[in-house]
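Posting here for the record, re: fe (ii) ion.
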Amino acid sequence: MRKIKLANNIYWVGAVDWITRDFHGYSINGTTYNAFLIIDDKVTLIDTVKGPYTGELLHRIRNIIDPKKIDYLVVNHVEMDHSGALPEIMEAINPEKVICSKMGHKALLQHFHRPDWPYHVVTSGEEIRLGQRTLSFLETRMLHWPDSMFTYLKEDQILFSSDAFGAHFASSERFDDEVSQDILMREATKYYANILTLYSPFVQKLLAQVQEMQLPIKMLAPDHGVVWRSNPAAIIEAYSRWCTHQGNGKALVIYDTMWDSTKMMARAVAEGLHEQGVEYKLFDLQVNHRSDVMTDVLEASALVLGSSTLNNGMLPRMVDFLMYMRGLRPAKKVAATFGSYGWSGEAVGMMNAIIKELDIVLCHKGLKVPYVPEHGQLGQCVELGRTVGRAMQAMMAGEKVESVL
Ligand SMILES: Cc1cc2nc3c(=O)[nH]c(=O)nc-3n(C[C@H](O)[C@H](O)[C@H](O)COP(=O)(O)O)c2cc1C
Ligand SMILES: [Fe+2]
Ligand SMILES: [Fe+2]
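Prediction output follows.
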């Protein structure tokens, strides 16, 4: 079995999961659970893997060293995809210390109910000597759990960043320079959009903190996807754009429909956007997964949402999407809503109500059309698209755009 080296005496010992397709509602094409082994006077394992991959983790460790020789186990994050292996690993290695944050200690007890494990709680800035090398810790609360922390290997300038800077990306290769940059960046974008958007204020604070500390980062080793060794600055730069909600000047028309009336409206809205010189994408929720739509929402500057009314409410796929999007809290965009209806037409008002909870400007009160739209009503849809386009352009030009509702 090949030994995968990050640097001298530092190895990747994780597992590639080619099977998982759903990660709590986020569609993925497999992922990796990265764990890292440092051989020094104090042999250290950083993070473990999801439960079913415990055997593979041990196998990879044994390929390098007897697991019993591991002295320290660092738990950067307690979520099961990184700690599921812990009970078995603890039996196998019996370490001198389980290093975790204060919140990590609490979460470990609440997950595994083992007060007898040799916890060693660290706080930000604390250092532990391994022999030749030094580990230093940085608590990253709510990125994305209260227990999350980073571990920095000073001499080698490697930042083990837990879930941050990760991507659900399964590949035979382990480093950024060995895979397609387009696919990698798309997966990293999808990861931020679906896991971190709501924690953007924490990401902003963290990036400022890391900059202030002037940490030289030669390698960024997250717990999912590849290790960023050729250009770690690229993903840090992307995070600084995403966490400030910088828009790309593009619009999304996202809709669902029963008998295609709302679809006709969506296509006319898109025409209006185009007439206004705005690039757009059309997402029919019947064929697009919520997490793929969310990936585009992250960078889009305008959202136009369409649903007809079903049983005095929105269509179920729009409910699903908006509940999902509301939780992730995208911000700094303009939006409008539309939909066909028969007699009561509540869907548009309901979509507006959800948008109003977010830091997103409603630039139109919403367009409703009874049953099947005719030529003039489709013209109103085109006009709606133009209105959204103009509001978005004003926002991009730095003008203050007020909500109409
Ligand atoms: C099962 C069902 C329930 C409906 N419930 C409502 C309703 O509560 N209020 C309303 O205004 N229209 C209701 N409608 C009418 C639709 O909103 C209307 O047919 C609309 O044109 C459908 O647009 P679409 O083709 O974009 O789905 C309902 C239609 C169906 C099939
Ligand atoms: Fe996590
Ligand atoms: Fe994770």
